Amino acid sequence: MSGIHVKPVPADVSTLTALADFPDTSPRGIAGVIARLVNTGELAGGDRLPTVRDLAGSLGVSPATVSQAWQALSRAGLIESRGRAGSFVRPTSPGRLAPRMRGMAAPNDPVRLDLSRGTPDPLLLPALGPALSRVSARAETGSYQDVPVIPPLAAVLARSWPSQAGSIMVVDGALDAISRTLEQLVRFGDRVVVESPGFPPFLDLLDMLGAEAVPVRLDEHGMLPEALARALQRRPVAVLLQPRAQNPTGASMTPERADELARVIRSARDVDDLVVIEDDHSGLISTEGDVTLGTSIPDRVVHVRSFSKSHGPDLRIAALGGPAELMERIAARRMLGPGWTSRMVQTILLDLLTEGSSIDAVAEARRQYYTRQRALGDALRARGVAVAPADGINLWMPVLSERSALVQLAAAGIRVAAGTPFLAASETTDARGRADFVRVTVGVLREGTEEVADALASAATHLAAGGY
């Protein structure tokens, strides 16, 4: 039935005007029209929707049909129910999250399968209980001025580091490491080269520092050397990249690609002080070997190794290694804040990195993630979806329409992450010719691969009602 329209703050269906038709009155079709209005801004955060019964009466469908549409929109994070007050367009996420992180935040509505969060499978993390019992009697701090890294952990990290580092320290997770490094390098107005697509919190950090992100395209092996060469002509102060299991694409650099990128940097003019920051956030669960530009340009590389994906996000611990002078500046600044990462947590990590059953658990997780990635990737390609082979726990899926895919998958009880937050502002402002994508966290997909592939492929290759 056509001719039913919506305007902002429609308290009841009688106020509907000329914004949209409902050519398809199935649950998916109704959800599609509302989603398009939200996506275009014609329905804004806080706008009230018609009641289920009123809209059902106007469309000539059952209240259950509209209710199913509302449920799909809620699972997609577009609307929320406020009980007897009605249903409303979901307002912007809480201010505790930076802008792109808000775009990544999944709503709390229950969903059959959440593939949106980018987190590891909790069942594949090594058990913390035995480690806690073993270290409880050993973890103590006798002085605020003790060395920030306990010596046994420092030795283990040094032996496993992918290149020669002037100094290695421990911080509170990968983002803490990236943030503290950028704060030492970037001044307001500076440019920083980033991957495109890249990790949204990196882009938020640059915005907060007043820096300009210079996006560089990727292929299945990471940054394209020729694209990096063009970006370096803009005289950036840093290059921020993920050498393995890149989030969101799952791309991993080869040693040959790392050498190419290092040559491009060495030959570039007017970037003598440029620093490369490498976020190896999934190194221990990656199927690819260690890789770093530090092998070729060790005095210009800061390498970050996080243990969140392999050993548990709540440990909040990562190692940071690079030129000694820069590491000393970061350590000195940190002493005026948290000072050091809890030596108890460091001792737990040391145990997890050296104890046999924990090492075996991480190796099994690596195998499981590889198997899940390959199974879903093969299933999608067999259904005509051109996804690239990926490493780690995430997969980057092309879709005809990001918003349409999110709504269709929500209707099927599946949540994935929107692709837009992974793009720099310049790419989202000028969207001409830009393909749409969603990120799928394959790492938590334990079963039902074929069924999920059917739903993903359908959402990737079909537009919902409303043509968006």
Q: How would you portray this structure in words?
A:
It is built from 17 helices and 15 strands. The protein is α/β, with parallel strands linked by helices and 468 residues long. It has 3 domains: 13-89, Orthogonal Bundle (Arc Repressor Mutant, subunit A); 99-123 and 358-461, Aspartate Aminotransferase, domain 1 (Alpha-Beta Complex); 127-354, Type I PLP-dependent aspartate aminotransferase-like (Major domain) (Aspartate Aminotransferase, domain 2, 3-Layer(aba) Sandwich). The protein has an 8-stranded mixed β-sheet, sandwiched between helices. Strands 12-15-14 form a 3-stranded antiparallel β-sheet, covered by helices on one side. Helix 8 (200-209) links the parallel strand 5 (191-196) and strand 6 (212-219). Helix 1 packs across helix 3, helix 2 (52-59) crosses helix 3 and helix 5 crosses helix 13 (343-354). The longest helix is centred in the C-terminal third of the chain and has 27 residues, at 356-382.
Q: Strand sequence of the main sheet, in spatial order?
A: 4-11-10-9-8-5-6-7
Question: Tally of extended strands?
Answer: 15
Task: Spell out the CATH superfamily of the largest domain.
Answer: Type I PLP-dependent aspartate aminotransferase-like (Major domain)
Oligomer: single chain
The helix count comes to 17
Distance between the termini: 19 Å
CATH topology of the largest domain: Aspartate Aminotransferase, domain 2
Assign the CATH architecture of the largest domain: 3-Layer(aba) Sandwich
What's the average pLDDT?
A: 87
Query: What's the alpha carbon Rg, rounded to whole Å?
Result: 24 Å
Q: What top-tier CATH class of the largest domain fits best?
A: Alpha Beta
| Low-pLDDT regions | 1-12, 14-18
Largest sheet, strands/sense/barrel: 8 strands, mixed
Shape: globular
Fraction in beta strands:
5-15%
Number of structural units classed as domains: 3
| Sheet/helix structural class | alpha/beta
Range of helix content: 25-40%
